[in-house]
Amino acid sequence: MLTSARFRSVLGHFPSGVVAITGRDAKGGPAGMAVSSFTSVSLDPPLVAFLPGKTSSTFPVIARRGTFCVNVLAVGQEDLCQALAVPGADKFAGVDWHPGPHGDPVLDGVVAWIGCTIEAMHDAGDHRIVIGRVDDLAAGTAAEPLLFFRRRYHHLAAA
Ligand SMILES: Cc1cc2nc3c(=O)[nH]c(=O)nc-3n(C[C@H](O)[C@H](O)[C@H](O)COP(=O)(O)O)c2cc1C
């Protein structure tokens, strides 16, 4: 039987990184959500994508301005990731960040950030596929990425 529990459990066996999609609300304040459904899409033109659920209250706020920043989360940012997944919470309390491309938040300590303009949105069941055109990006060298697998956080093992 293809139940939603089985779907979630089996798909949870696909490992991924975790990003914070950030943007600005109508008053210019920071907005954000934790997302594992992030991927690079195209090199020319430079495109990336992520899939926000249709019940997300944060994504419409970000979409209204039409830009977003992808923050690749690092080991040690598990609590920040959890905070960014709670609807309606004051997600940025105690979080250090600075304005990146378009003024969207770049979080301190992330592995990389990618500033984008929303290029297209496609309907996809109970989610949307959001395509972003990359305007600017940068990677650090110090931070290790946070990994998500079988509903738990993991670190890279030393080779
Ligand atoms: C590790 C992790 C990965 C997540 N991946 C996604 C995702 O790919 N798409 C999505 O819509 N929500 C994802 N979420 C959940 C959202 O972060 C969260 O439900 C949503 O932002 C709710 O808050 P909002 O109403 O402020 O949007 C993820 C949460 C966690 C902890």
TrEMBL record:
Q: Kindly give the InterPro entries that the UniProt entry links to this protein.
A: Flavin_Rdtase-like_dom, NADH-dep_flavin_reductase, Split_barrel_FMN-bd
User: What's this protein's family per the entry?
Assistant: Belongs to the non-flavoprotein flavin reductase family.
Query: Under which name does UniProt file this protein?
Result: Flavin reductase family protein
Ordered alphabetically, the record's keywords are: Oxidoreductase
Source taxonomy lineage? Answer: Bacteria, Bacillati, Actinomycetota, Actinomycetes, Pseudonocardiales
- One GO MF term attached to the UniProt entry: FMN binding
**SMART domains reported in the protein's UniProt record:** Flavin_Reduct
- By its UniProt entry, which SUPFAM superfamilies does this protein fall under? FMN-binding split barrel (SSF50475)
Annotated source species: Amycolatopsis rhizosphaerae
Q: Any idea where the Flavin reductase like domain is?
A: 11-155
The record's listing under Pfam families reads: Flavin_Reduct
Superkingdom of origin: Bacteria
Q: Which PANTHER family match?
A: FLAVIN REDUCTASE, FLAVIN-DEPENDENT MONOOXYGENASE, REDUCTASE SUBUNIT HSAB
